[in-house]
Specification:
This protein is of the alpha/beta class. The chain is built from 8 helices and 10 strands. It folds into 2 domains: 123 residues, Rossmann fold (3-Layer(aba) Sandwich); 86 residues, ATP-grasp fold, A domain (Dna Ligase, domain 1). Strand 8 and strand 9 form a beta hairpin.
Length: 225
Protein backbone atom coordinates (compact mmCIF):
# COMPACT_ATOMS: atom_id res chain seq x y z
CA UNK A 1 0.00 0.00 0.00
CA UNK A 2 1.34 3.43 -0.91
CA UNK A 3 1.94 5.77 1.98
CA UNK A 4 2.02 9.52 1.79
CA UNK A 5 5.19 11.29 2.88
CA UNK A 6 4.87 14.40 5.01
CA UNK A 7 8.14 14.51 6.99
CA UNK A 8 11.20 13.44 5.02
CA UNK A 9 14.56 13.02 6.78
CA UNK A 10 17.63 13.48 4.58
CA UNK A 11 20.27 10.99 5.70
CA UNK A 12 23.12 12.50 3.70
CA UNK A 13 24.96 15.77 3.26
CA UNK A 14 26.41 18.21 0.73
CA UNK A 15 25.50 17.85 -2.92
CA UNK A 16 23.33 14.78 -2.32
CA UNK A 17 21.25 16.61 0.28
CA UNK A 18 20.87 19.66 -1.95
CA UNK A 19 19.64 17.53 -4.84
CA UNK A 20 17.03 16.00 -2.57
CA UNK A 21 15.90 19.41 -1.31
CA UNK A 22 15.54 20.70 -4.89
CA UNK A 23 13.51 17.64 -5.92
CA UNK A 24 11.22 17.91 -2.91
CA UNK A 25 10.60 21.60 -3.61
CA UNK A 26 9.72 20.76 -7.21
CA UNK A 27 7.38 17.93 -6.22
CA UNK A 28 5.67 20.11 -3.62
CA UNK A 29 5.04 22.78 -6.21
CA UNK A 30 3.51 20.29 -8.62
CA UNK A 31 1.35 18.40 -6.12
CA UNK A 32 0.44 21.28 -3.87
CA UNK A 33 1.14 19.13 -0.81
CA UNK A 34 4.37 20.32 0.77
CA UNK A 35 6.77 17.86 2.34
CA UNK A 36 8.68 18.97 5.42
CA UNK A 37 12.40 18.28 4.97
CA UNK A 38 14.64 17.47 7.93
CA UNK A 39 18.41 17.59 7.45
CA UNK A 40 20.49 15.27 9.62
CA UNK A 41 23.85 16.98 10.11
CA UNK A 42 27.11 16.58 11.98
CA UNK A 43 28.94 19.30 13.90
CA UNK A 44 31.24 20.45 11.04
CA UNK A 45 28.18 20.96 8.79
CA UNK A 46 26.11 23.01 11.24
CA UNK A 47 26.26 26.10 9.03
CA UNK A 48 26.22 24.29 5.69
CA UNK A 49 23.90 25.25 2.87
CA UNK A 50 21.84 22.04 3.00
CA UNK A 51 21.21 22.55 6.72
CA UNK A 52 20.05 26.13 6.16
CA UNK A 53 17.84 25.17 3.22
CA UNK A 54 16.00 22.35 4.98
CA UNK A 55 12.79 23.12 6.87
CA UNK A 56 14.19 21.55 10.03
CA UNK A 57 17.49 20.07 11.15
CA UNK A 58 18.56 17.42 13.66
CA UNK A 59 22.14 17.29 14.95
CA UNK A 60 23.96 13.95 14.85
CA UNK A 61 26.88 15.22 16.94
CA UNK A 62 30.53 14.60 16.01
CA UNK A 63 31.25 13.71 12.38
CA UNK A 64 32.89 10.37 13.21
CA UNK A 65 32.68 7.62 15.80
CA UNK A 66 34.77 4.60 16.75
CA UNK A 67 33.20 1.26 15.84
CA UNK A 68 33.60 -1.95 17.85
CA UNK A 69 36.99 -2.55 16.26
CA UNK A 70 38.19 0.96 17.07
CA UNK A 71 38.00 2.20 13.48
CA UNK A 72 36.78 5.75 12.81
CA UNK A 73 33.52 5.74 10.86
CA UNK A 74 31.18 8.44 9.58
CA UNK A 75 28.25 9.36 11.82
CA UNK A 76 26.04 8.73 8.79
CA UNK A 77 26.82 5.01 9.17
CA UNK A 78 26.01 4.81 12.89
CA UNK A 79 22.64 3.05 12.67
CA UNK A 80 21.68 3.53 16.31
CA UNK A 81 22.41 7.25 16.08
CA UNK A 82 20.47 7.55 12.83
CA UNK A 83 17.41 5.75 14.18
CA UNK A 84 17.43 7.96 17.28
CA UNK A 85 17.60 11.04 15.04
CA UNK A 86 14.73 9.80 12.87
CA UNK A 87 12.59 9.31 15.94
CA UNK A 88 13.47 12.78 17.23
CA UNK A 89 12.60 14.23 13.81
CA UNK A 90 9.24 12.41 13.78
CA UNK A 91 10.16 11.40 10.25
CA UNK A 92 7.77 9.23 8.28
CA UNK A 93 10.32 8.69 5.51
CA UNK A 94 14.09 8.63 5.03
CA UNK A 95 16.02 9.53 1.88
CA UNK A 96 19.61 8.29 1.80
CA UNK A 97 20.96 9.28 -1.62
CA UNK A 98 24.25 7.54 -2.35
CA UNK A 99 27.11 6.37 -0.16
CA UNK A 100 26.86 6.06 3.64
CA UNK A 101 23.81 3.80 4.34
CA UNK A 102 22.39 3.85 0.81
CA UNK A 103 23.42 0.20 0.36
CA UNK A 104 22.81 -0.95 3.93
CA UNK A 105 20.08 -3.61 4.11
CA UNK A 106 20.19 -3.35 7.92
CA UNK A 107 19.32 0.35 7.87
CA UNK A 108 16.49 -0.19 5.39
CA UNK A 109 15.17 -3.05 7.53
CA UNK A 110 15.27 -0.96 10.69
CA UNK A 111 13.32 1.79 8.91
CA UNK A 112 10.75 -0.77 7.80
CA UNK A 113 10.44 -2.13 11.35
CA UNK A 114 9.97 1.41 12.70
CA UNK A 115 7.23 2.19 10.19
CA UNK A 116 9.41 4.69 8.34
CA UNK A 117 9.31 4.65 4.55
CA UNK A 118 12.77 3.95 3.16
CA UNK A 119 12.96 5.84 -0.13
CA UNK A 120 14.59 3.11 -2.18
CA UNK A 121 14.47 -0.65 -2.68
CA UNK A 122 13.23 -3.03 0.03
CA UNK A 123 15.88 -4.29 2.46
CA UNK A 124 15.94 -7.77 0.92
CA UNK A 125 16.73 -6.33 -2.51
CA UNK A 126 19.52 -4.17 -1.10
CA UNK A 127 20.92 -7.25 0.62
CA UNK A 128 20.96 -9.08 -2.69
CA UNK A 129 22.54 -6.28 -4.73
CA UNK A 130 24.59 -4.35 -2.16
CA UNK A 131 27.50 -6.77 -2.52
CA UNK A 132 28.95 -6.08 -5.97
CA UNK A 133 30.32 -9.62 -6.29
CA UNK A 134 26.90 -11.16 -5.60
CA UNK A 135 25.30 -8.60 -7.93
CA UNK A 136 27.66 -9.47 -10.78
CA UNK A 137 27.03 -13.19 -10.36
CA UNK A 138 23.27 -12.58 -10.30
CA UNK A 139 23.54 -10.52 -13.50
CA UNK A 140 25.57 -13.25 -15.18
CA UNK A 141 22.99 -15.91 -14.22
CA UNK A 142 20.29 -13.68 -15.69
CA UNK A 143 22.23 -13.29 -18.93
CA UNK A 144 22.97 -9.59 -18.38
CA UNK A 145 26.35 -8.52 -19.84
CA UNK A 146 28.88 -7.39 -17.24
CA UNK A 147 32.32 -5.82 -17.50
CA UNK A 148 34.96 -8.60 -17.59
CA UNK A 149 36.15 -9.25 -14.05
CA UNK A 150 38.03 -11.61 -11.76
CA UNK A 151 34.98 -13.83 -11.22
CA UNK A 152 35.20 -13.44 -7.46
CA UNK A 153 37.18 -11.78 -4.70
CA UNK A 154 40.95 -11.41 -4.86
CA UNK A 155 42.49 -11.97 -1.43
CA UNK A 156 46.01 -10.69 -1.90
CA UNK A 157 48.19 -8.72 -4.31
CA UNK A 158 49.38 -11.91 -6.02
CA UNK A 159 45.87 -13.12 -6.90
CA UNK A 160 44.95 -9.59 -7.98
CA UNK A 161 47.98 -9.58 -10.27
CA UNK A 162 46.97 -12.88 -11.86
CA UNK A 163 43.44 -11.63 -12.49
CA UNK A 164 44.67 -8.35 -13.94
CA UNK A 165 47.11 -10.13 -16.25
CA UNK A 166 44.25 -12.28 -17.57
CA UNK A 167 41.90 -9.33 -18.03
CA UNK A 168 44.46 -6.98 -19.54
CA UNK A 169 45.32 -3.49 -18.38
CA UNK A 170 44.10 -0.97 -17.37
CA UNK A 171 42.04 -2.47 -14.55
CA UNK A 172 40.14 -1.31 -11.48
CA UNK A 173 40.44 -2.81 -8.02
CA UNK A 174 36.98 -2.35 -6.46
CA UNK A 175 35.43 -2.86 -3.05
CA UNK A 176 32.64 -5.43 -2.98
CA UNK A 177 30.74 -3.51 -0.30
CA UNK A 178 29.45 0.03 -0.01
CA UNK A 179 29.30 2.67 -2.68
CA UNK A 180 29.83 6.33 -3.30
CA UNK A 181 33.04 5.73 -5.26
CA UNK A 182 34.98 4.57 -2.21
CA UNK A 183 37.32 1.60 -2.32
CA UNK A 184 38.09 1.94 -6.03
CA UNK A 185 41.62 2.26 -7.41
CA UNK A 186 42.95 2.23 -10.97
CA UNK A 187 46.01 0.28 -12.14
CA UNK A 188 47.28 1.28 -15.57
CA UNK A 189 50.09 -1.30 -15.62
CA UNK A 190 51.43 -4.23 -13.56
CA UNK A 191 53.68 -1.81 -11.70
CA UNK A 192 50.60 -0.07 -10.27
CA UNK A 193 48.68 -3.15 -9.18
CA UNK A 194 50.10 -3.92 -5.72
CA UNK A 195 49.65 -0.35 -4.50
CA UNK A 196 46.14 -0.15 -5.99
CA UNK A 197 45.15 -3.38 -4.26
CA UNK A 198 46.48 -2.29 -0.87
CA UNK A 199 44.88 1.16 -1.10
CA UNK A 200 41.46 -0.10 -2.26
CA UNK A 201 41.39 -2.78 0.41
CA UNK A 202 42.40 -0.34 3.15
CA UNK A 203 39.72 2.19 2.16
CA UNK A 204 37.07 -0.54 1.90
CA UNK A 205 37.92 -1.72 5.39
CA UNK A 206 37.85 1.84 6.75
CA UNK A 207 34.67 2.96 4.99
CA UNK A 208 32.56 -0.19 5.06
CA UNK A 209 34.17 -2.54 7.57
CA UNK A 210 34.67 -5.07 4.77
CA UNK A 211 38.04 -5.33 2.96
CA UNK A 212 36.77 -7.63 0.19
CA UNK A 213 37.84 -6.45 -3.29
CA UNK A 214 37.78 -7.75 -6.84
CA UNK A 215 39.40 -6.79 -10.13
CA UNK A 216 37.51 -5.47 -13.15
CA UNK A 217 38.62 -4.30 -16.57
CA UNK A 218 38.64 -0.51 -16.68
CA UNK A 219 36.22 1.11 -19.10
CA UNK A 220 37.55 4.38 -20.45
CA UNK A 221 35.20 7.37 -20.64
CA UNK A 222 32.44 5.47 -18.83
CA UNK A 223 29.45 7.29 -17.34
CA UNK A 224 28.18 6.55 -13.82
CA UNK A 225 24.40 6.12 -13.81
Amino acid sequence: MLRSIRRLAIVNRGEAAMRCLSAVAEIGGEWGEPITTIALFTEPDAASWFVREADEAIALGPATFADAAGRRRSAYTDLDRLMTALAAARADAAWVGWGFVAESPEFAARCEQAGITFVGPPSEVIGLLGDKIRAKRLAERAGVPVVPWSGGAVHDAASAQIAADLLGYPVLVKAAAGGGGRGIRSAESPADLAAAFASAQAEARQAFGDPTVFVERKLEAARHV
